Amino acid sequence: MHDDSQSLIAKALRKEPVTRPPVWMMRQAGRYLPEYMELRRQYGFLERCYNPELAAEITLQPLRRFPFDAGIIFSDILLPLDCMGADLHFREGKGPQIDNPVRSAEDVDALTDFEPERDLPSPMEAIRLCRQRTDKPILGFAGAPFTLACYLIEGGGSKTWHHTKHFMWSQPEAFKKLMDKLAVAVGKHLQAQINAGAVAVQLFDTWAGALSREDYLEFALPAVQKVFSMVSGAPTLYFSRDTQCFLDFYPQVGADAFALDWRVDWTRAQQVLGDVPLQGNLDPIALPAPPEIIRQKVHHIIQQAGPTGHIFNLGHGCTPQTPISGVQAAIDAVLEWDWSKVG
Fold first, then answer.
1. Residue 211: left (phi > 0), alpha (psi -120 to 50), or beta?
2. Could you give the CA distance from residue 202 to residue 239 in angstroms, rounded to a whole number?
3. What is the pLDDT, as a whole number, of residue 267?
4. DSSP state, 219?
5. 151 is an active site residue
6. C-beta atoms surrounding 141 within 10 Å
7. What are the per-10-residue average pLDDT scores of the chain (343 residues)?
8. How far is CA 170 from CA 31, 109, 163, 167, 211, in A?
């Protein structure tokens, strides 16, 4: 068993001094890599997720190509819903779709309880395989309850989350029961990944930014707090997009560290959140920019973040259009940084 405790990412999460920040990228395994596209032609999306050998291979692909400091296990936030009774499909050109959306209190009651090792062993097995095959730390992850509820109620993606908000406001008790049920499932899922060897776990609350401050406080925050109260043994990170308006609620979340999207100002985040590790936050659409622009942006973020408690990352995930050269340029800019030489 190799020791992750002296890895750059472990040191950053403990706020220990490092000569440069560790770097990994959300969605670093995926559609911008030709080796991933080769597997995509051979296997369906859910097969790639549910087969531990394939999931491990996809996790390791970017670690072979780039000098990242950590990998994140290849999986999908919606897999627990598939195990709880959602009729989940990934259809070409349409993204995730749930053919039996939750729209009533009865639908909430019909969702089954989730036990990760029994119902969804593949991510944990993939983590164990990766641990055998690389010295790089491996991160686990899950979707936050509100974000999962969005897909579960809409039946897919949305720009407005109309059905989700209608359910939330018209049936608030049923919605809160759903959030509680999802929080228990997600907490168990994160803990199982830590038990399998994940060096840290990240909770993705991608769509929480669709909420007002009041609705976030009433509906999303309590479920996130419940998730983190169930998780121990490794650092936890919380990520959401478009959440600058309720950044001041973050100290109540219960996470050990926070991943910031590219719209969040570092100085304000540090003032509001205090002495906690922060991750981020290059705009992923900057990766097609000229290398010198990428370098300037990366160095600006590192300079703002300071010499301790920073993990360099994007402000959201790599897109299918992300150029390999842009990823390499960003990593190079991080690798050339040296805090011992910065006046």
1. beta
2. 7
3. 92
4. I
5. yes
6. 22
7. 84 96 97 96 96 98 98 98 97 92 98 98 98 97 98 96 98 98 98 98 96 96 98 98 90 97 94 94 98 98 96 97 98 97 78
8. 39, 17, 10, 5, 15
Residue 31 a catalytic site member:
yes
Determine the Cα–Cα distance for residues 252 and 273; give it in Å rounded to an integer.
Answer: 10
Architecture of domain 8-341: Alpha-Beta Barrel (3.20)
Q: What is the pLDDT of residue 289?
A: 98
* Catalytic residue chosen out of the listed positions 27, 48, 131, 241: 27
What was the pLDDT predicted at 343?
61
The catalytic position among 32, 151, 216, 250 is 151
> What is the gyration radius of the CA atoms in the chain, in angstroms?
19
Q: What is the pLDDT of residue 4?
A: 83
Helix ranges restricted to H, the chain: 8-13, 34-42, 45-50, 52-65, 79-84, 105-110, 116-119, 122-133, 145-154, 162-170, 172-195, 213-215, 221-229, 266-273, 291-305, 324-335
What's 282's DSSP letter?
E
Q: Let me know if 41 is a catalytic residue.
A: no
Can you tell me whether residue 302 is helix, strand or coil? helix
